[in-house]
Amino acid sequence: MAEINVMETIPEKMIIPLKQHKGDICEPLVSKGEVVKVGQKIGECPSDKCAAIHSSVCGEVVSVEESSHPSGNRINSVVIQPIEETECEDFTPFKDSGKEQLISAIKEAGIVENYGTPTHLVLNPPDCDIDTVLINATASEWVGHNYETPLEYASQMLDSLRLLMKAAGASRGVIVLRNDDKDSIDAFDGLDYEGKTIMVSPLIGKRRVDYYFNDQNTDIIVVSQDKIYGKNIFEYFTYNVTGRKVPFRCTPASAGVAICGVKSTKAIHDLVNTGMPYIETVVTVSGQVNNPQHLLVKIGTTFRDVIEACGGYSGEPAKLISNGVITGVAQYEEEVPVTKMTTSIIVQGKDEVLKDISKECIHCARCVDVCPVDLIPNRIAALANQGRFDECKQMHVENCIECGRCSSVCPSKIHIMQLLQYSKEAIAKAYEDMFEKESSNLKLGCACGSE
Amino acid sequence: MTLTISAPPHIKQDTTFRKITWIKFLTLLPVSLVSVYFFGLYALALILAGIGMAVVTEVVIQKAFKKEVTVANGHAPLIGLMVALLVPGEAPIWIPIVGAFFAVAIGKHAFGDIGSYIFNPVLAAWVFLQLAYWSAMYPVSFPELGGISDLFLENGAGMLVGVSPIALVGGLYLIFKRYVEWKIPLFYALTTLVLALLIGDKIGHVVTGAFIFGVLFLATDSPSSPVTKNGRIIYGILCGLLTVIYGHFANYVFAVFYGIFLANCVASFIDNNTLPRSFGEESFLQRKYRLMMNKIPLEKLGVKIDD
């Protein structure tokens, strides 16, 4: 059980990118020389596929310019020089509001899922009905999110789930925990909520949520399953939990499912109870730093300041990674800001940096044994390398959840995950071209919410 | 400060092909030592001749074709050692030399180097030697497991590999560390033993050094065996079936090598026909089972069904 520390020091410079989500870039509302307050809106959405950006500190805008972003690109950002005193916008909590107000409030507060989609699009996708809301708590424990006790975590999560269901207009809600996460399971198990006792039920075999909804005769259940990680887990996650198949290139919304993370759930809870927009997030710092810890930081703090707050590097750093060692992005420089999508910062030393050269595949089948979705990664990688994407499609490459296990066990050090991603992108592009040419009676697309 | 940029994943297992082959090489050293003890220093000469010729052939071929010389990954020495182990203790010294040359030049490089060959180079060389130099390759005696002491030192051994079945159990360490795969050895050994029992062959004839070597080292050679999960089970069963068919009518030592060699032929065929389905789709058996169960009116019979 780790504690959350709050980053107290005020950095010299904050970089707040105007795009911290997947979708359209925000338009800046401030210009050089203006003074901004905590929680002041500095980025306005030009369209619906967007989440607003707020200032996380009080200070003077130094410039609005292109600056580096943890994704590796350069994004138009607002650079702020913070000042000592903190002046806040007036946050007003709101209660007893309807679906529309809730959705627009979530959009205005700029709440974004940790995988990048703005939460209001997840809960209220265009032309789509959501009937089940899932909270994916398999990846992060309650300790990671600023809750004081497990009990508080459990009851707040259930309250937030009610809010999410109201916002999405869904009739059923599920919280998905991880099998080996004893703290969370103990917190939920036996809890009385709305006159009913919550029981954590494992997802085994064909017993999916439908079975437990019938069995427990309730509209909110808590289930547990093995940890699923990866960049693109939603099709598999949706199937595992609800038994519904999501068509290729569609979001889970087309199966009537909305998937939220623990972070955005907490942010919505804060928004409703205090009115605070999404301006701070918990980042796990690990690796070659003096004090590895969970740190509550303001969005826009640079990695350098975060690492300094953790006691600085212990040794010569050679690689700086945002968001996990398996799927994360290695950074060019330290001057990159923490965004709404940042969950962890990892520093690797010189001897940890891999310098492998890809060799021939020896068909050892290690990748086949570790693949969670039953693919034949070595064969698909070979086909993708030769550009035979139609054959990749026949071998269900679209099921790949991009977890990187295959690349990590490969004794020949082949970049299997990248080759699979490459073929998926090529197939998706081929589908894009097909839409216009096909006759209208042939239905290829999603019911709603394509990526 | 310089930061490195690279594609994820940023941590990988430290298992490499080089490590796997050298550990295989090391696990074969005990049996080599016992064979030297058993057949005298001449066995050492056979082994060194095999390894030396394999290395020389690999270097010459890779130099000639202007490829990177990959002797250091240990595959050529491993092939040389394995070929030498499959040779009778009294064979002329040129037998392992010709065998190692054939294994590396034809078995491995002519088929396109590591990962592309369809026949295990060691077995290809053994079959070649067996057909071409029959009299030199025929062992003086075939081993039979009489008692526990035969597990440690087999007095009837004809080939170098047959001298001590127990010295080969290093192969289990390979399975434990997942350097080789476990499904093929398990199903191969089970099928062979069960079938041999059923048709009444003496188990003492089946469990020899050659059989254990075949199960743990030859059948698990990764490029010449299937990769799909079900495919590996089928391959193991097929190896066992072919071994028993040959062994029942001839002898179980040759049966192991011919059985695996023939099973190599169909490895890719098995692979292509056992590709897994997408998750959430029923397999052939599941669909049949569901259709069958749908026809039975369980609810009328008073059975309560979950889900």
Automatic annotation (TrEMBL), chain A:
<keyword id="KW-0411">Iron-sulfur</keyword>
<feature type="binding site">
    <location>
        <position position="367"/>
    </location>
    <ligand>
        <name>[4Fe-4S] cluster 1</name>
    </ligand>
</feature>
<comment type="function">
    <text>Part of a membrane-bound complex that couples electron transfer with translocation of ions across the membrane.</text>
</comment>
<comment type="subunit">
    <text>The Rnf complex is probably composed of eight subunits, including RnfA, RnfB, RnfC, RnfD, RnfE and RnfG.</text>
</comment>
<keyword id="KW-0004">4Fe-4S</keyword>
<keyword id="KW-1003">Cell membrane</keyword>
<dbReference type="GO" id="GO:0009055">
    <property type="term" value="F:electron transfer activity"/>
</dbReference>
<protein>
    <recommendedName>
        <fullName>Ion-translocating oxidoreductase complex subunit C</fullName>
        <ecNumber>7.-.-.-</ecNumber>
    </recommendedName>
</protein>
<dbReference type="Pfam" id="PF12838">
    <property type="entry name" value="Fer4_7"/>
</dbReference>
<feature type="binding site">
    <location>
        <position position="400"/>
    </location>
    <ligand>
        <name>[4Fe-4S] cluster 2</name>
    </ligand>
</feature>
<keyword id="KW-0249">Electron transport</keyword>
<keyword id="KW-0677">Repeat</keyword>
<dbReference type="Pfam" id="PF13375">
    <property type="entry name" value="RnfC_N"/>
</dbReference>
<dbReference type="Pfam" id="PF10531">
    <property type="entry name" value="SLBB"/>
</dbReference>
<keyword id="KW-0813">Transport</keyword>
<dbReference type="InterPro" id="IPR049684">
    <property type="entry name" value="Ion_transpt_RnfC_Methano"/>
</dbReference>
<dbReference type="InterPro" id="IPR019554">
    <property type="entry name" value="Soluble_ligand-bd"/>
</dbReference>
<feature type="binding site">
    <location>
        <position position="403"/>
    </location>
    <ligand>
        <name>[4Fe-4S] cluster 2</name>
    </ligand>
</feature>
<dbReference type="GO" id="GO:0005886">
    <property type="term" value="C:plasma membrane"/>
</dbReference>
<dbReference type="GO" id="GO:0022900">
    <property type="term" value="P:electron transport chain"/>
</dbReference>
<comment type="similarity">
    <text>Belongs to the 4Fe4S bacterial-type ferredoxin family. RnfC subfamily.</text>
</comment>
<keyword id="KW-0472">Membrane</keyword>
TrEMBL record, chain B:
<dbReference type="Pfam" id="PF03116">
    <property type="entry name" value="NQR2_RnfD_RnfE"/>
</dbReference>
<keyword id="KW-0472">Membrane</keyword>
<feature type="transmembrane region" description="Helical">
    <location>
        <begin position="69"/>
        <end position="87"/>
    </location>
</feature>
<feature type="transmembrane region" description="Helical">
    <location>
        <begin position="156"/>
        <end position="176"/>
    </location>
</feature>
<dbReference type="InterPro" id="IPR049685">
    <property type="entry name" value="Ion_transpt_RnfD_Methano"/>
</dbReference>
<dbReference type="InterPro" id="IPR004338">
    <property type="entry name" value="NqrB/RnfD"/>
</dbReference>
<dbReference type="GO" id="GO:0005886">
    <property type="term" value="C:plasma membrane"/>
</dbReference>
<feature type="transmembrane region" description="Helical">
    <location>
        <begin position="233"/>
        <end position="261"/>
    </location>
</feature>
<keyword id="KW-0288">FMN</keyword>
<feature type="transmembrane region" description="Helical">
    <location>
        <begin position="36"/>
        <end position="57"/>
    </location>
</feature>
<dbReference type="GO" id="GO:0055085">
    <property type="term" value="P:transmembrane transport"/>
</dbReference>
<keyword id="KW-1278">Translocase</keyword>
<feature type="transmembrane region" description="Helical">
    <location>
        <begin position="118"/>
        <end position="136"/>
    </location>
</feature>
<keyword id="KW-0597">Phosphoprotein</keyword>
<protein>
    <submittedName>
        <fullName>Electron transport complex protein RnfD</fullName>
    </submittedName>
</protein>
<keyword id="KW-0830">Ubiquinone</keyword>
<keyword id="KW-0285">Flavoprotein</keyword>
<feature type="transmembrane region" description="Helical">
    <location>
        <begin position="188"/>
        <end position="213"/>
    </location>
</feature>
<keyword id="KW-0813">Transport</keyword>
<keyword id="KW-1133">Transmembrane helix</keyword>
<feature type="transmembrane region" description="Helical">
    <location>
        <begin position="93"/>
        <end position="111"/>
    </location>
</feature>
<keyword id="KW-0812">Transmembrane</keyword>
